[in-house]
Amino acid sequence: MFWFKKSIEKKGKLSKPEELPSIVQNYLANEKKIDANIVTLLRMVKIKDDTEEGLFHIRIFDNSDALAKDIEVHNYRSLDDHPDLIIFEGVFNQKTKDVNLEQKNTFIWDVPILTQEEIQKKIEALSKPGESVFFYMARGGKHGGPLGMGATVIELNPKYPGKKQKKYIVYLANVVDMKPVENKEEGFRFNDPKKIAVWVKNGHHKRMYAS
To answer: What is the rounded distance in angstroms from the CA atom of residue 55 to the CA atom of residue 7?
Structure first.
């Protein structure tokens, strides 16, 4: 592939990230068995191959993961230094409708969605000061994770029941490698686990949004 790399280096501006074309979406849904609704949320960067009409080299990634890692993907070459972001890599041909993709990294998108009652029970099960539990989120101000929008972390306040202390501290966090990052952001504090569970459930649902 050395010849291909040299040919692209001679080209001008590379194309920006874009939605997957329908032939690639269908391939991922039918051949790789990824939920068709999730496929629409992924993005790709591409480079035209001048040796064959209609042929493009592509890299598919989840921009939510890139944002969680504070990486901005501008074009195909942006991922040279971040191979961990590439979910699939390969080619597709707009003319012949052929698609050939190799999976480069694990893509976890299908995780159990908990009920409000299940969420509340997990919160109430916290027993040691500083102990915490987290829930993936499909909406909110963070990024990464299988639901796309990071995670909510609930901690049993180590200072409770001190003066003016609430029992639970709720944090928002980006998710990297399926775990909330340590640099999380405090959201609010509550004593009532049911109120927290209601709030969490509002954003803990099937993934619907692209980042």
So the answer is: 14
- 22 and 92 share a domain? yes
The whole-angstrom separation of Cα 94 and Cα 105 is: 25
Question: Which of 103, 134, 168 marks a domain boundary?
Answer: 103
Beta carbons of 82 and 59 less than 8 angstroms apart: no
Question: Domain check: are 37 and 71 in the same one?
Answer: yes
Q: Answer yes or no: pTM beyond 0.85.
A: yes
> Which stretches of the chain are DSSP H helices?
2-9, 22-30, 36-39, 63-68, 116-124, 193-203
| pLDDT tens profile 100-147 | 999 999 999 999 999 999 999 999 999 999 999 999 999 988 999 999
Q: 6 lies in which domain range?
A: 2-103
- Comparing C-alpha atoms, which of 180, 177, 183 is closest to residue 84? 177
Contact 23, 55 (CB under 8 A): no
Residue 211 lies in a domain: no
